[in-house]
Amino acid sequence: MNPTYYFSDQVAFVTGAGSGMGLATARAFAESGSAVALADVDDDALSTAATELRDAGRQVLTVHCDVSDETQVAAAVASTVETFGRLDFAYNNAGIQSPIIDAADEPAETFDRVTGINMRGVWACMKHELAHMRTQGSGAIVNCSSLGGLVGLPGRAAYHASKHGVIGLTRSAALEYAPRGIRINAICPGTIETPMVTEMFASGDLDPAQAAADQPIGRLGTAEEMAAAVLWLCSPGASFVVGVALPVDGGYTAR
């Protein structure tokens, strides 16, 4: 059973909120009483998610946002603040995977796209979230890295570079903003049951049985387990946690 959080009168901004870990986290914030801004490039997924939450009586805003475009990020964050009056929490979750490929063969276009969304997107989101939070003098940001931000794997150089970069952004910004009342941390999910992982299974980039066996807990993680970690990091229970890259990986990186 997860702890119960009381985030009424507070506002959360979640990227990649149309599915997977983003949607699970948006649900968790909403169920805890927070107003939630859902940002994603998939308008149909946003509409479905918003309908679900509104039907449950939640306060929801949807914003089309490609995080690799800083102009769209700035507009999405500004719209959140204009609609709800403040910004208390952010989960910078939007990301993509790249196909397994020899590092000597990886096209520059693939590298630029993966880092543009996974790393530059987090940078842009933090930049504009912090601009509002520093005025308030409060806030909590959680960035989505990966077990790929803590280890390397053959064939995934661009993806792992982007996720290592997220941890560097997190730690440096955390040190800068902790004295101003804003906490910044990251989670590092293992292999999680999400649409992205399902696509990797379908393409043959990942074997389901091997993926489960690679995690000492013996199974894949769930999006809801990632959401629970995000909400804890945003909660008063983590009030002394700053600049952490928290593995939520079933023990993968403990070996």
UniProtKB/TrEMBL annotation:
Alphabetical UniProt keywords: Oxidoreductase
Pfam families: adh_short_C2
Protein family membership: Belongs to the short-chain dehydrogenases/reductases (SDR) family.
Protein name: SDR family oxidoreductase
Organism: Rhodococcus olei
Lineage of producing organism: Bacteria, Bacillati, Actinomycetota, Actinomycetes, Mycobacteriales
